[in-house]
Design goal:
Its cofactor is FAD. It comes from Tistrella arctica. Pfam families: MTHFR. This is Methylenetetrahydrofolate reductase. By secondary structure, the chain is an alpha/beta fold. The protein has one domain: Alpha-Beta Barrel (TIM Barrel). 46% of the residues lie in helices and 14% in strands. It has helices at residues 36-51, 69-83, 98-110, 140-150, 170-182, 196-208, 225-235, 241-247, 254-274, 289-297, 303-319; strands spanning 9-11, 20-22, 26-31, 57-60, 87-91, 115-118, 154-159, 187-190, 215-219, 279-283. Strands 3-4-5-6-7-8-9-10 form an eight-stranded parallel β-barrel, surrounded by five helices. Helix 4 (140-150) runs parallel beside helix 5. The longest helix is centred in the last third of the chain and has 21 residues, at 254-274. It is globular, with a radius of gyration of 20 Å. It binds flavin-adenine dinucleotide (FAD). The site of flavin-adenine dinucleotide has 24 residues, from helix 5.
């Protein structure tokens, strides 16, 4: 019998195969600051459901140009206070002087939040090429250096298995990731990708470049395939042909679409875990169902159920 708990998963090659236990499997969940009363209610219901899966940490994004500065702060603090979660705040350099960005960091430290996902950010929509603020940080690495020199924060950064759209070339992009980690970041979180081989090749390239820190695999639940195709074109995430075939005919059939998306997310996660990628970062989009389905298929159970299952195992063994 396989022991499952909130901290231990299993990775069967196929569901009916003997599962290989993965004791150190870790998950983390990303959210965005809610908009409106409905968004607010949905977020907190989602957080409550996902908190039961004992994530290593959760994180909250920072709206373009700092548009959600206060909302990001309040959301991160509430996740920590109300749910006991290790909560990280995203922080970007866009449209802000260095002193203003660091003032945001100061406020986090004052509130007892000590994990920052340090990013450059994107120009506001339709804003064309990225132009740093005249008194701002030019690139994420500059923010990482400033946060590391300041001290008091665990720092995470972004990585791009399919290369950042504005990178000079793939090697320069990888050099930039190494520079961010060498400057003081303790982990990288990838942009989402759909083909697990993309991540595995990137991990090999990163290792060959001397990167030793964890690179968390960013997994995107497909809530709407049409929407994800548009979004992916902008951020450089490839949509494989097999995925187009997978959703062909399912786009207008909600139940089938949901089932396909749950299977896809779980298969990505299971394959990555089987390949030794034990840190999975889910872009939840503030919805729980698909992420929970993937966790469940990885053998990760909510805390209460896990405790009951663990308690039942000795009795079952004794009876057997
Ligand atoms: C996990 C994750 C979380 C994110 N969260 C947010 C969020 O909360 N809010 C938000 O607005 N955006 C977010 N983003 C998007 C991110 O801000 C954009 O992808 C942005 O365009 C790049 O940010 P970065 O931190 O990777 O930048 P950087 O690491 O600075 O890289 C940006 C580009 O500049 C290039 N570059 C770096 N140094 C140099 C140099 N010296 N000369 C020339 N080129 C250089 C890099 O190769 C890359 O192409 C997130 C992305 C990821 C993957």
């Amino acid at each position: 019998m396989t022991v499952t708990s909130d901290r231990r998963g299993f990775v069967p090659a196929a569901l009916w195969d003997q599962p290989a236990p993965v004791p150190e499997l870790g998950v983390s969940f990303e959210f965005f600051p809610p908009r409106g009363a409905q968004g607010e209610a949905r977020l907190w219901e989602t957080v409550e459901r996902l908190a039961a899966y004992a994530p290593d940490f959760v994180s909250v994004t920072y709206g373009a140009g700092g548009s959600t500065r206060d909302k990001t702060h309040d959301t991160v603090v509430r996740m920590r206070d109300e749910f006991g979660l290790d909560a990280a705040a995203h922080l970007t350099c866009v449209d802000a002087a260095k002193r203003d960005v660091m003032a945001v960091a100061d406020a986090y430290e004052a509130a007892g939040i000590n994990h920052i996902v340090a990013l450059r950010g994107d120009p506001p929509q339709g804003g064309g090429a990225y132009v740093p603020h005249p008194e701002g940080f030019a690139f994420a690495v500059d923010l990482v250096r400033a946060l590391a020199a300041r001290g008091g924060f665990e720092i995470s950064v972004a990585a791009y298995p399919e290369v950042h759209p504005h990178a000079l070339n793939p090697d320069a992009d990888l050099d930039n990731l190494k520079a961010k980690l060498d400057a003081g970041a303790t982990r990288a979180i990838t942009q989402y990708f759909f083909d697990p081989a993309v991540y595995l090749r990137f991990r090999d390239r990163a290792a060959a470049a001397g990167i030793t820190r964890p690179i968390l695999a960013g997994l995107m639940p497909v809530l709407g395939f049409a929407q994800i195709r548009r979004f992916s074109a902008a951020c450089g995430a490839g949509i494989p042909d097999w995925m187009i075939r997978l959703y062909d005919g399912a786009e207008d059939d909600e139940a089938t679409h949901q089932a396909v998306s749950a299977m896809l997310l779980a298969e990505q996660a299971r394959l990555l875990a089987a390949e030794g990628c034990h840190d999975l970062h889910f872009y939840t989009l503030n919805k729980a169902d698909l992420t929970i389905a993937a966790c469940h298929l990885l053998g990760i159970r909510p805390r209460r159920a896990a405790a009951a299952a663990d308690a039942a195992i000795p009795a079952a063994t004794a009876a057997g």
